[in-house]
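All the exercises in this workshop are built on plain-text protein records. Sequence and backbone structure share a record, each on its own labelled line. The question running through the whole workshop is how a given chain folds. The record below serves as our worked example for the rest of this section.
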Amino acid sequence: MYIETHAPKPAVSTEFLFTDSDFSKVRALIHRRAGIALGEQKRQMVYSRLSRRLRELRLPEFSSYLELLESRQDGDEWQSFINSLTTNLTSFFREAHHFPVLAEHVRKAREPVTIWCSAASTGEEPYSIAMTLFEAIGDKANAARVISTDIDTAVLAKAQAGVFTAEQVKALSPERLRRFFNKGTGSNAGKVRIRPEVAQIVKFSRLNLLDPSWTVKEPVDAIFCRNVMIYFDKPTQKKVLDRFAPLLKTNGLLFAGHSENASLVNQTFKPLGQTVYELARAKGKASP
């Protein structure tokens, strides 16, 4: 028999009581809802981010907040919970080595080109994909689609607006800034907005990779799922990869993040180098 000889310890801060049991429940809920596997070292991060929800809702402690969540199967607060615990680190042309690979791929692809960006965040990645398409195939990109999804509704709203600060675009070349952005004036001075002709090929919507049914059903030329798998445990990674495979056109590409490597790849995908993958066996080919 195991006898507990000490009370559950609260988090470092004492504004709200946050016990071991509360933290375990948060970890279980976010894993069930979003597939995110939070390690023990994320305790203070969880406390800091969810404390904002407790203040907003005027709740006295974490147990009250968790009871509120569990009393509702769905609703806005569940989305706020997910939004609070997702990480949205992004930038334009992040992991720049992927974009020449994409450009070469779409030059050879049959029209129209469709790319799925499965973690769109605040928009920098899908707009980088769209800019690459215009640079690679010119006016043919007007018929392309960049399907851009994310689980976090707050970042999707920012992405849809297509407005960025000077700091966010400082790494872009003057040529790209002139070609793909409009400068803000008046109250928008110091900001830029993605040009309408670029924005019109990028379509944003909410999608949870753990949902039993995805709104993305058409064959795509490439899937960007970068620095997402690192938040999933191995069974969830495998499930998502297996569901990606039928959505890729023959010779379609999967782009993963720099911190993700061949250990993510099962018999479904094989590496091409620099965290780019293709289906291990082309569709329609007989097994050896």
Q: What stands out?
A: The chain is about 40% helix and 15% strand. The CA atoms of residues 34 and 210 lie 6 Å apart.
